[in-house]
Write a structure and sequence with these properties.
Layout (H helix, E strand, L loop, with lengths): L4 E5 L2 E4 L4 H11 L17 E3 L2 E3 L5 E4 L2 H4 L8 H11 L12 H18 L3 E6 L2 H15 L5 E5 L8 H5 L18 E3 L13 H14 L9 E2 L4 E2 L1 E6 L15 H11 L3 E5 L23 E4 L11 E6 H4 L17 H16 L2 H22 L3 E7 L2 E6 L9 H11 L4 E3 L2 E6 L2 E2 L5 E4 L7 H20 L1
Parallel strand pairs: 5-18, 7-8, 7-11, 11-12, 12-13
Antiparallel strand pairs: 1-2, 3-4, 4-5, 6-14, 9-10, 13-14, 15-16, 16-20, 17-18, 19-20
Helix pairs in contact: 3-10, 4-10, 7-8, 11-13, 12-13
Length: about 475
């Protein structure tokens, strides 16, 4: 077989570089589209990255406002975290998860001790590789603790992954449609999405209404969820995102989760918090649930814990659920769980977070960015709603009435932003945006947490141009 071997330099043999047209032909012929989004007709190729930017083959900078779906919270090629990866690569890059290494133990201790300070609960940490895999582990943990109960609550608009178990508690049917049901589908509950909620209600009133609707499910045995004679619920846990991610960065009222937790505690239902997208200071706190003053029973993390370098995910759980007698060796396993490359980078990230006041910095930058988005809202009728917490920000694109979702315009804007011809100070830029929301009409903004004010101003300038182009097309 001819692999098109070519001499790169004297004494070195490797694959000859291919031009982009040839790469696209090969991609169309040999790559599954199932493992990529592939929404655009021609997804772009990128060749370099640094800080808040991706660069194409022409050297055009693309300001990235989604940072690999909030996985690269500390910027592309972060020198400190990359150095940690290099150090581990030169010492202990591989070891089976049946053995121990220092970085795993120290990382688990840091996460568990941090949770104990914040929640007042002793717990343990269990590692895996990807977010969906950690969700699967949490489902096993919950089912095991509750005597095999397989029914879960989750929110409308919630997203927890695309493995068979995780998709069962994700509200979008399209993630399950082709594959049937591997496990019981969750009972989906209304989330207080205020912009699209009942008119005339404050955000707090709507949150209370949603809790009241949920509590009503336990008023009688004939509502199908509760046996008042035995004092038992048919459901094991409620899976929540403190701020909805794929659902459009929807921020609930601050009283919402404390009211919801009271109902759960009254009926012996566990609270599992998915922090895969919003954790690691995206919202100005290590875990987004901290803003709401409740204590989770299980917390799931991933993505930014390694800044998108070697994948690592995991769960923190209360001691009662995860101590070795309850969850013994072999309860669940992945070959690459607690891999030393991932744990080394995550440990360095945790140390970095302890040394600097990321909370204050993220909240200040987020408020500045949000103020700028509100100014754009005044200028452009296409902007129906803006909101956010920390550097998790949303822009809802609507029709002229300021309310009707306009997915087509946002799709056009995303393609337009990828042309790399937006102008700022005589320089050409591209803009990397992500789409979310119940109607796929929301720009979900998750910029680099180390983003500068100058870069925020640049983002606002480029968004302003993009909205103007959309209005005049």
């Amino acid at each position: 077989m001819n692999f098109n071997l070519a001499i790169k330099e004297p004494g070195a043999v490797g694959l000859a570089p291919r031009d982009e047209d040839e790469l696209r032909r090969l991609e169309q012929a040999y790559c599954s589209h199932g493992d990529t989004v592939h929404y655009a007709t021609q997804p772009p190729f990128f060749e370099f990255c640094e800080g808040s930017y991706l660069y194409d083959s022409r050297g055009t900078p693309f300001l990235d406002l989604q940072m690999w779906y909030s996985a690269v919270n500390f910027g592309y090629r972060n020198p400190r975290l990359n150095a940690a990866a290099h150090r581990q690569l030169d010492t202990l890059p591989q070891v089976a998860s049946q053995y121990l290494h220092r970085e795993k133990v120290e990382l688990a201790a840091l996460i568990a001790q941090d949770a104990e300070r914040k929640f007042g609960l002793k717990g343990r940490v269990h590692f895996n590789v990807g977010g969906s895999q950690a969700i699967e582990d949490s489902l096993k943990l919950v089912r095991n603790y509750t005597g095999g109960k397989s029914l879960m609550f989750a929110f409308e608009g919630g997203y927890h992954g695309r493995t068979l178990g995780a998709s069962a508690i994700t509200s979008s049917y399209r993630y399950r449609r082709r594959y049937g049901h591997f496990s019981d589908r969750a009972h989906f509950v209304e989330f207080p999405y205020h912009f699209r909620g009942p008119k005339g209600m404050t955000k707090e009133e709507y949150g209370q209404l949603c809790v009241q609707k949920f509590a009503r499910l336990f008023e009688s045995e004939y509502n199908g969820l509760w046996d008042p004679k035995a004092g038992k619920s048919e459901f094991a846990a409620f899976y929540v995102e403190a701020i909805q991610g794929t659902g459009g960065y929807v921020v609930p009222p601050m009283n919402f989760f404390s009211d919801l937790k009271k109902v759960l505690d009254e009926h012996g239902i566990l609270l599992v918090v998915d922090e895969i997208q919003m954790g690691v200071y995206r919202t100005g706190k290590m875990w987004a649930i901290e803003h709401f003053g409740v204590k989770p029973d299980v917390l799931v993390f991933g993505k930014a814990i390694t800044n998108g370098l070697n994948p690592l995910s995991g769960i923190w759980a209360r001691e009662e659920l995860i101590h070795p007698d309850m969850f013994p060796p072999g309860s669940t396993h992945s070959t690459f769980a607690s891999n030393p490359m991932g744990t080394a980078v995550a440990l360095e990230a945790m140390k970095m977070l302890e040394e600097e006041d990321f909370g204050a910095s993220v909240m200040e930058k987020g408020a500045y960015f949000l103020d700028g988005l509100k100014e754009l809202q005044k200028l452009h009728p296409v902007v129906g709603d803006v909101d956010g917490l920390g550097l998790a920000l949303r822009v809802e694109v609507c029709r002229e009435d300021g309310y009707t979702p306009d997915k087509a315009t946002l799709d056009w804007m995303c393609d337009e932003a990828m042309k790399g011809d937006l102008d700022a100070g005589g320089e050409k830029y591209g803009l990397v945006l992500d789409v979310g929301g119940y109607h796929k009409n929301v720009i979900t903004l998750a910029p680099n947490l180390l983003i500068t004010r100058r870069e925020i101003d640049l983002a606002l300038t480029l968004l302003d141009q993009l909205f103007a182009r959309a209005a005049s097309r």
